[in-house]
Amino acid sequence: MEEKRKAEIVFRTDDVTKVYDTGEVKVYALAGVDLELFSGELTVLLGPSGSGKSTLLNILGGLDHATSGDVWFRDLELSKLNDRELTRYRRDNVGFVFQFYNLVPSLSARENVALVTDIAPDPMRPEDALSLVGLGHRLDHFPAEMSGGEQQRVAIARAIAKRPDVLLCDEPTGALDSKTGITVLQALKDINDQFGTTTAVITHNASIRKMAHRVIRFQDGRIGEVEVNDTRIDPKDIQW
């Protein structure tokens, strides 16, 4: 079983650090992180604010560079790519979902998703992506006409419409109430179940960990513990 898992590693980091040097003091956002994320899994990255979760996700997604250490996406060494190569990597492989939806206010749901599908090599139709997150009836509505949860589901549809290898989600329920947050988590679980999209979800809400295949706990820029859930619960059963 262990050999099978090794063959399915999507992300691997070796002794990754991220240091912010203000001139007077060095702040270690990451202080030596060794990580593996596996194909098809939904992983929750859990920890308090400032523990390094978002910094690591930005490095995995090609939005930032590590200060030192090695970062791999399958056979591609991200830590050796320049900015242009990282842009190509993000475009071709990664879908992002952030806490704030980053929708274009003047565009409809369909048009917001089309921003991605117009540049992807093998995209879904925007209508199909929106239907997958339960918004097939809201195609021509604008963000201001939608609830927070609906806007976040548009953001998820936009992220998955290019059929990414990985979906990286930074506090996707952070701005939502419990009922709406559970709807968003269900959409993420459904995408993971249906397409096998490797999914990482950052949260400080410990309850969400129970829906994951794997839970990685962060503390002070390091990984403190990794748990594997033998039994996962459905988002609707999460006690917020």
In short:
With 240 residues, the protein is α/β, with parallel strands linked by helices. It has helices at 2-7, 53-60, 83-93, 109-117, 126-132, 148-160, 178-195, and strands at 9-21, 26-38, 42-46, 68-73, 76-77, 94-97, 166-170, 198-203, 214-219, 222-228. The radius of gyration is 18 Å and the shape is globular.
The CATH superfamily is identified as P-loop containing nucleotide triphosphate hydrolases
SSE succession: HEEEHEEHEHHHEHEEE
Structural class: alpha/beta
The CATH topology name reads Rossmann fold
What proportion of the residues is helical, as a percent range?
25-40%
Low-confidence residue ranges: 1-7
Shape: globular
Strand order of the largest sheet: 6-7-8-3-9-10
Q: What is the CATH-assigned architecture?
A: 3-Layer(aba) Sandwich
Q: What would your notes on this structure say?
A:
The chain has 240 residues and is of the alpha/beta class. It has one domain: 3-Layer(aba) Sandwich (Rossmann fold), CATH 3.40.50. Helices cover 30% and strands 28% of the residues. The chain is built from seven helices and ten strands. The strands form two sheets. A six-stranded mixed sheet has the order 6-7-8-3-9-10, with helices on both faces. Strands 2-1-4-5 form a four-stranded antiparallel sheet. Helix 4 packs across helix 5 and helix 5 crosses helix 6. The longest helix is centred in the C-terminal third of the chain and has 18 residues. The protein is globular and about 50 Å long. The N terminus is likely disordered.
